[in-house]
Amino acid sequence: MGTLGLIRLVLACELRRLLRDGRAILFAVVLPVVAFPLLFLSTDGLGEIGRDALAARDVRLVHDLAALPPDDGAALLSALDDPELLIEAEARAFDAADEELREQARTLFADGFHALLLARPPTKPAGPARLEVYFDEASETSREAARRVRGELLELLSAARDERLVALVGEDPGARFEPLPVDVARPEDTAGRSLGGLLPLLAVLVLISGGSFAALDAFAGEREAGTLETLLVQPAPALALAWGKFLAVALTGTLAFAGNALSLFLCLVFEFGSLPALPEDVAWSATAGRLLLACAVFLPTAALVSAVLSLVAARARTFRQGQLLTMPLSFAALALAAPSVQPTTELGVALALVPITGGALAMRDAAAGAPALLPQLICLLASTGWAAFALSRLRRTVDAERLLSTSDVSDEANARRVHSSRAIRFGAVSALLVYVVGGRMQAAAPVAGLLATLYGLVVFLAVLAAARSARRTGEPLGTALGLVRAAPSHLVGAALLAPAAGQLVQRVFALQQRLLPMPSTVGAEALVSFTAELSLPLLVLLLAVSPGICEELLFRGALLRPMRRDLAPAAVVLWQALLFGAVHASIYRFVPTALVGALLAVVALRARSVFPAIVLHVGYNGLLVTASLGEVAWLGSPWLALLALPGAWLLARPSAGDAQAGGA
Amino acid sequence: MGGRGLAGTALAVAGKEIRTGLRDRQAVVYTVLLPLAMYPVLFWVMLQGFLVMQGERERTEVRLASGLAGERSRVEEALIEPSAEVPAGPATLDWHEQPWTRDDATEALRAAELDGYLAQPEDGGIEILFDGSKSRSALASERAEQRLSNLVTVLRVEAAGGDPDALLPYTVDYVDVASSEEQSAFVLSLLLPMMFCVMVVLGAFFPAIDLTAGEKERGTAETTLLLPVPRLGVLLGKLLAVCAFALAATVLNLAGLLVAGEHLLAGMAQAGGDAGIAFDIPWGAFPRAAPLLLIFLVSTSALLLAVASLANTFKQGQSLLGGVQMLILVPTVLASLPGIELTPALALVPVAQTALAFKGILQSNAATLDLMLVAGSQLVYTALALALALRLGRSEALSLGSGEPLRLPALLRGGGAPK
Amino acid sequence: MSELALRTRDLRKVFHDPERGSVEALRGVDLECRYGEIYGLLGPNGAGKTTTLRILATILAPTSGEAELAGVDVARDPLEVRRRLGFLSASTGLYARLTPRETLRYFGTMHGLVGDALEQRIEELVETFEITAFADQRCQGLSSGQRQRVSIARAVLHDPTVLILDEPTTGLDILGTSDMMAFIDARRDAGRLILFSTHILSEAERLCDRIGVIHRGRFLGAGTLEELRERTQREYLDEIFRALVEEA
Asked: If pLDDT is split at 50, 70 and 90, which confidence band does A383 have?
């Protein structure tokens, strides 16, 4: 029997078993078909109920407009007197000092008033009078009162402004340029767009919630029922089992989604509910065609979601664990699909490559009848690639040994890398801690926070990691931290590499800027806030020496040694690059810092000591800091990079330490 | 041996359940580690995604064309070489001396040959024609509108001799008298009540199944039933354990969410060019809300425990509780709506009462009488949930998981309860 | 002597557990079994019986050593091994929402049986194992004895030359156990190898042509009951077993 036949066989069996599980059908398919469209449609309606309730409230305000020009004061009061505004206004005279006004307003609000309108004399002799509107942002009614007052004031003031402009220059000079946006989109395009923004979110949600029953049943459920062993001794290759089960998951999820999309669509056609920005006169038949195309475009992404879901279910040891894991999975998938609701985000090449995000945007554009060919094609290829990758992982997971082990007994290949996998996990947790804890400390106090992060957190983590590995290997703590005497030639060699490293990273960064442009607001980094206050030596100490020492102790010291124990040098360099990129917690700094991390790892591996890496790191950061201040012009010279040649030679040539290490 | 008293039994059972629960590595990972790690990672991804989208948007060039009669240099300057104040991003402007008809422009926009077309209407202003179903066209309209508005302001200020104040009879300042803590409390009052209820239900979900259906599945239910202790004690012990797990999960989840959420908001505000809002967590409100929240936690745990005891297997329990979960969570949406406050009538509605009371406490506008009404009715509901759990716990068919199909009406009539 | 149906040489298996480190589950197991015999793998719980059988069934990969089943190397061509093998363990379950007939059809198709040949074979099995009365009910409602019969039918569906049974009588009542024993006898008479593991000495004593003893992952020896008696100078199997353990 061919593999295709086997896939079909497994798929048919899975589907038959699922179809006979009445409860699963109810919860996976029927309930969502009813619930999700209702949820989407009702958010709009419920919001309206809230807004209506607010608009129906009476608000009370106190005013003292004596300092306004009399006509303006009267105009404002008569505008606020509009019965539709439901404003009850009361005049009172105020003569409090400036600093007491807030307190007085608070007292008023505590007495059941919602806003205070207070006119104040001009600050400069010929200047305009000032009107202060006191309100309480923490009270819904007070906010509503301020909103109503604001609306009236805007109208009054723009009329007054126009009048003055006419008096001053004879006309409003801006009137000719007043922008008036007019949307000329076809109704079906707008409808497609409006639905297309939601569909990816709905799709991801339903694919996971609908598919998870099938996925858990096909893997964890089968393990718990004791049928998995039987299945694995059948003469069917893992490929057939993986694909058969994956297709069952994908098909269940897709059916659930189809039901949902259809019910949402019918709700809209028969006007059971509406969506924001949905035009009145929609040709639903044309829209239906768009939506079908959009769903077709989303297929590779749907396959990806189903494959990842299957992968999670297959790796879960129990039904329950699988169930618990689907929640973070849906969160992550929803976060990735969320850009589709942002109307001005375009499907560009970069976004087309991102899993789920690309598919979501492609689906939205197809629904709006505006698929751009090239990005769509790239997205199609990328999504297919991601799905194929997830499927190949799934096929490898559907391996008897891993599936049948009930405890945490790991397979041999992983266990042989126990030191390195511990170090990698530790590195990932460290990156998270530095991001969360260090980020908060630096937000509270930039300089002190940075010092606390480096000398407190990072060094603590380094010592902790080193102590853990020292306990297992019996090395002294210093050795576990990489504090081993380095050859002088290695130290000098590392120092000579610094200028070249700096220039390389700048080139890479410039290249990256073309592919992944930074928003204009990000460039202004924390560095700028220091530079004004601190002198150069202090800056170098803070931004070059301290990170150089602390980060190296953790990454090239405590974490590199256990990695080296059971990974090939290239793998060590790769992991070091990934972790070092991750710890900088910015997508724009990932590639540049990963590159530096890789270089530092190479140096540390070569020298078998953390010291040369510290020298290179300090040198590299120091050059960047000095150059960014622009005070030492020759530091930017490309010729400095040539120092890397003797540096590399010093590092590469055989040294006294090699013989020792070789003999040991 | 006489067995132990009610309280002793409850404590012993709870202690054992909590101990075994804590030894379950999976459970610990999912209640402790997941909330602490998931939210920062998730929000980090969202923040980076936000930045990438912003960067992409700023790079996107929009193609505008103009059918305007005059003022070419002014418009070109405003649209193509904008000053620093307007949103960044390149634009091209094609100046047609012979204006297109509206239909031609519309056709070009719909075919995406063009992203925005400037037209001169009869009565002043500049119409920006765009196709809102296309991202680039929506972006073009957004950019053109902001830049032209900027131009309008500049021109008016120029006319007033450079003093913007000269155009107005009086200036207006809006003064918010709320402290930053009160403001944060308001923002949280729209989110936190709903999230609290969700977290409690999610937190009690698996422990409730584990201690009932899970125990039947593992075959330990029988052993417990044979002990010479009151059934109510066993039930209370289990309830205590479920509450403990739900409390831990809720606190950790909310803490993780608050910390990570604050970071995300600050990051997004910075990327958007704002200074960012000061976010002060209103710690003072929590002790005041704590009694009501705790009673809600207990009554929810009791209800979930009662329903889960209908199930014979973990999977069955899961599908049963799935429905209950939805029922509990729907009313909490009420609290997230602005304009809906705690009233004496709403104070009696299960679940919604708690969410709205929490909201009221955070906004410090809840009436004491209403809050007492909430507490009173909450206690009644808790007692009802407990009675249900006890009644279901007494039935023979359920306690041993005989595999017979379950019929709820028969159970509620007390069928099978031992004398 | 008939030809070898199964042979292992110095079979070893190491598991890794994060708590306990490396665990050597098998430390050199050498088995030789022939067609037409019932071979009992005897050892206490945790001795390595299940690991050995799972390696032979291609579910686990050996850390080192060789294993050959029906002339095929288990590591080199696992699919071919699975075609010649029937496997049944105490933990084997059935798909709750499929009927026995559907179950047999599913696994039969996997083994390449199609059309009339498949239907004919299913009918044969349904009759032989007295499944007829409940052949079209879903498995979730069957008694444990009925399930056992369906499982056995499933295991011999493709008429495997080697049948591996891992503690097949665990959880069965007396009737079920005697049915199982009768079935094992019948397979032997059909010229198949039945390799089964047990920790119940009486079962091994009554049924097995030859017995292999395994303890803490080590293979302590094999032979007919007579041979083992001779080797250890003991009469009863439990004494023999103890002697072998002491000897090792």
From this structure: very high
- The full 3-state SS of C53-78, as one line of letters, equals HHHHCCCCCCCEEEEEECCEECCCCH
Pick C97's closest partner by Cβ from A20, A236, A415: A20
Nearest residue of C to residue A227, measured between CA atoms: C93
Q: Which of C12, C16, C53 to mutate to test the interface with A (most CBs of A within 10 A)?
A: C16
Residue A105's alpha-carbon distances to A76, A96, C230, in angstroms, are 20, 11, 106
DSSP letters of A59-83?
EEEEEE-TTS-HHHHHHHHHHHT-G
pLDDT, tens digit (0-9, with 9 covering 90-100), for A178-205: 999 999 988 888 888 888 888 999 899 8
CA distance C240 to chain A (A): 33
CB contact under 8 A, A177 and B148: yes
Residue of A nearest to C140 (CA): A225
The alpha carbon torsion through A512, A517, A520, A521 (nearest 10 deg) reads: -80
| CA distances from residue B211 to A144, B123, B252, C100 in whole angstroms, order as listed | 49, 74, 22, 34
Strand pairing partners for B95?
B66
CB contact under 8 A, C60 and A235: no
Q: Which amino acid is at B284?
A: G
Comparing C-alpha atoms, which of B110, B151, B406, B385 is closest to residue A193? B110
For CA atoms A378, A383, A388, A389, the dihedral sign is positive
Predicted pLDDT at A250: 94
pLDDT score, position A493? 92
Give pLDDT, residue A656: 59
Among the residues of B29-134, which ranges form H helices? 34-59, 72-80, 102-110
Exposure pattern of C65-89 as b/e (b: 16+ CB <10 Å)? bebbbbebebeeebebbbbbbbbbb
b/e map C102-126, b = 16+ CB within 10 Å: bbbbbbbbbbebeeeebeebbeebb
Whether this prediction's pTM lies above 0.95 is answered by no
A26-35, A309-318, B229-238 — which is least confidently predicted? A26-35
Interface of B with A in 144-173 (CB under 8 A): 144-145, 148-149, 151-153, 155-156, 158-160, 165-173
Map residue B396 onto helix, strand or coil.
helix
How does strand B126-130 pair with strand A179-183? parallel
Chain B contacts of A516, Cβ < 8 Å? Answer: 52, 55
**Residues of C with CB below 8 A from A411's CB?**
16
Selected for mutation to probe chain C from A217, A227, A419 (highest C CB count within 10 Å) is A227
Look up the ipTM and state it. Answer: 0.83
How far is the CA of C33 from the CAs of B392, C67, C197, in angstroms? Answer: 56, 12, 13
Q: Measure the CA–CA gap between A156 and B308, rounded to whole angstroms.
A: 62
Chain A to chain B Cβ contacts (< 8 Å):
318
The secondary element (H helix, E strand) that includes residue C219 is: strand C218-223
Of B284, B254, B126, the residue nearest B194 (C-alpha): B254
> Which of the residues C12, C14, C15 would you substitute to probe the A interface, choosing the one with the greatest number of A C-beta atoms within 10 Å?
C15
CA distance B42 to A428: 15
Residues 6+ apart with CB under 8 A from C134: C100, C142, C146
DSSP string, A185-229: --HHHHHHHHHHHHHHHHHHHHHHHHHHHHHHIIIIIHHHHT-HH
Q: Do B42 and A331 touch (CB under 8 A)?
A: yes
Q: Which of C59, C96, C110 sits opposite A229 (nearest CB)?
A: C59
Which candidate, A163, A75, A80, A83, places its Cα nearest to that of A114? Answer: A80
Residue B31's alpha-carbon distances to A333, A371, B27, B259, B299, in angstroms, are: 21, 43, 6, 17, 20
Token pair of A175 as six digits: 């009137």
Check A169 against B159: CB less than 8 A apart.
yes
**β-bridge mates for residue C88, sequence order:** C165
